[in-house]
Amino acid sequence: MPERLRVVCYVNQFFGQIGGEEKAGVEPLSRDGAVGAARAVQQALGDAGTVVATVICGDNYAAEQSDRALAAMVALVAAAKPDLVVAGPAFLAGRYGVACGALCAAVQAQLTVPAVTGMHAENPGVDLYRRSVYIVQTGAEATRMLPEAQRLVALGLKLARGEKIGAPAAEGYFARGVTRNVVTETTAAERATAMLLDKLAGRPFASEVPRPSFASVPAPRLVKTLEGATIALVTDGGLVPKGNPDGIEALNATRYGAYSIEGKDALDAAQYENPHRGYDTTWVKQDPHRLVPVDVARELEQRGAIGKLHETVYSTVGVATTLAQSARMGAEIAEKLRAAGVDAVILTST
Amino acid sequence: MRLELRWFEVRELTVAPATALAGAPARLTGGRLEVDLEALRAQLSTDPRLAGVRLDAVHPGERVRIGRVFDVIAPRAKLDGGVDFPGVLGPIAKAGHGRTAAIAGVAVVATDQQSDQVAGALAVIDMAGPNAELSRFGRTHNLVISAWPAAGTARSEYLAAVRLAALKAGVVLAQAARDAEPARTEVFELPPSPRVPAELAHLPRVAYVFQIHSHQRPTGVDEGILYGDPIRRMLPTIVHPNEVLDGGVVRGFMGRNATTWAIQHHPIIRSLYARHGRTLWFAGVVVTVAHATEPERVRSAFLTAGLVAHTLGADGAILTKIGGGAPHVDMAQAAAHCEALGVKTTVIVEDMSTDGSAEGMILFDFPGVDAMVNVGGGQELLAFPAMERVIGADDLAPKLSGEMRATYGTLCGAIEQIGATTMMAEVR
């Protein structure tokens, strides 16, 4: 790595001194050296690096032609052969913040060049890109450009030099929502006791695990009577035909199976197995209806209590499955059920 | 109830021929523990469930990887006629009182020499290299037990026999200290929970809820956990903390990031003892199990909260779990019931994420359960350097001796779910 890092800055039309809102349609362009707000980045870099180019793009163009704008900006960045990209800071400017996040993510992924940006906590770019991009927390307005630029540059230099990045609070970036094992000073037991005493005394305490913000999914209303409805059976309890034909994983599943029950009044235990590693499957293996009640559902169908039992059962293994995989599998299964005209689902879990 | 742990620091573990020890299987001289491995091996081989026993002594700094670790035991021996590991090794008797010899610097490591029946159950200890620093058991002198099942021995019986051998070995080692003067003595004395002196009545009363097993996998007949009981349908039970420290509780056979060693040194019990009478009043311990069905889980959660709030009269409680996802939720549900009764809680979780995302760290969101400490993520990958020798898991030796990438959960002693370790998953 060269001693003086080559740095490319990205700024919008305003911070690039092209103009205000009336110039927001300006297409991406590149200027040699540090232009406009990029001068603060150069000042912050000092001898550590040189801003070799400043890429400028109008906010409206970046927002309205986002794919085209991004491709053009990545090409302009690549042409300058940077060791580091510094985007913004965008403060509370929404279109600008989103563009900064998108550009940083793209240069990291496509050019494998480290990138850093900065913005205010309420900038929509934070939620969109904090997982993939180091975003330094800044104020809402550009009243303190130099100190903000210094903080971006400090983190950016660490990234460019491959140095160890500290915790979000220490480095001043938004938590990226990833976890990493670190060795602490005290045992978990000591920390738990101290935390409890703080909680009991009404003192502030810092939980080591963020509360999850699971989106609530309201159950839709069944618009028909049960007598006219097609009902499907879906489970994450791991019931699969013998041989586990879809190779559904014993934990951390990424696959699910669709299994026909056409012509079956009940499930024959001998034809099924269960790879699920999160619970004692003894009783389900003994009688699969304890998990997937085909027997009772058929009776209800024959009695006319439900319109029809859907002839496909969907099954996966729900243990240590990531939220992302769960959401994907759930959406895919729901789509197939809807396409097949299923009105309601009995979802059995363990 | 008063328990005295008499500590002996061992800095050197050596193998001695029988003639040198005058008939005793082990001898302690200063900081040196000499063991007649052949005599001890013969003693452990009498179990008809085992076809063969091998003992190895390994030391910090040796380029050795101990493979398929099943459990780790701290050498302890009751003095004055007390019973060792009552209900499992000795007859059922009250644990937690009297004097116990305890050896520091040495651990008994039981390995599982049967082929790996459950994928992912592999646990190893490195005696050298960076991972020796991450696990306490990389820094102890270890007596490693390898044993093979006799023909016709079922899996659960085999594991029971291996664990029994390890407990016996631990007792034999600690008995060598029987007549010696300890380096230090630790006293654990807790009066009956309601008897608080008036001048200490202002202290917050803190209970510990110790989940000692998860029935995700049902226990075997010989899988004694609480005084030898496989606790199959156990309801929440109050025990004296000394009973936990002194062999009344041992780990079950499913050992995900939990060892009997950690239970014998229980870090939360010690932490509460250390502050007892100063910044808190240690109100007692409730042992629970994670159940397999919903009614059992709910019943256990509200009974636990009732014992904590109404019987122990606690203002606060710390809860831990043993096992995977179901016990994690069971623990949180019990914590939520405690919070509903006005008892403030802190829970210790393992980072449950399998993809390193903070949103996957926990599997619950209960009101009030907002104070969480974590022991790190067992699924994060860790590099294991090549080693010269593998002990235990003979069938895997070629694979285990090489360089490998495996999870933090694979390194026995890096993460202890009851909080004995310093690992933490930091959200970044």
What is shown here, in short?
The complex is a heterodimer of chains A (350) and B (428). By secondary structure, chain A is an alpha/beta fold.
Question: Would you mind describing this structure in some detail?
Answer:
The complex is a heterodimer of chains A (350) and B (428). By secondary structure, chain A is of the alpha/beta class. Helix content of chain A is 34%, strand content 19%. Chain A has eleven helices and 14 strands. Chain A has a six-stranded mixed β-sheet with strand order 2-3-1-4-5-6, sandwiched between helices. In chain B, the strands form six sheets. A six-stranded mixed β-sheet of chain B has the order 15-16-14-17-18-19, sandwiched between helices. In chain B, strands 8-9-1-13 form a four-stranded mixed β-sheet. A four-stranded mixed β-sheet of chain B has the order 5-12-10-7. The radius of gyration of chain B is 21 Å and the shape is globular. Chain B has two domains: 2-184, no CATH class; 193-379, no CATH class. Chain B has helices spanning 37-44, 130-134, 155-175, 241-245, 260-264, 267-275, 294-311, 325-340, 397-401; strands at residues 2-9, 12-15, 26-29, 32-35, 50-58, 64-66, 69-73, 76-78, 98-104, 106-111, 125-126, 141-149, 184-189, 205-214, 237-239, 281-290, 316-320, 344-351, 372-377, 381-384, 389-391, 404-407, 423-427. Chain B is α/β, with parallel strands linked by helices. Strand 7 of chain A pairs antiparallel with strand 23 (423-427) of chain B.
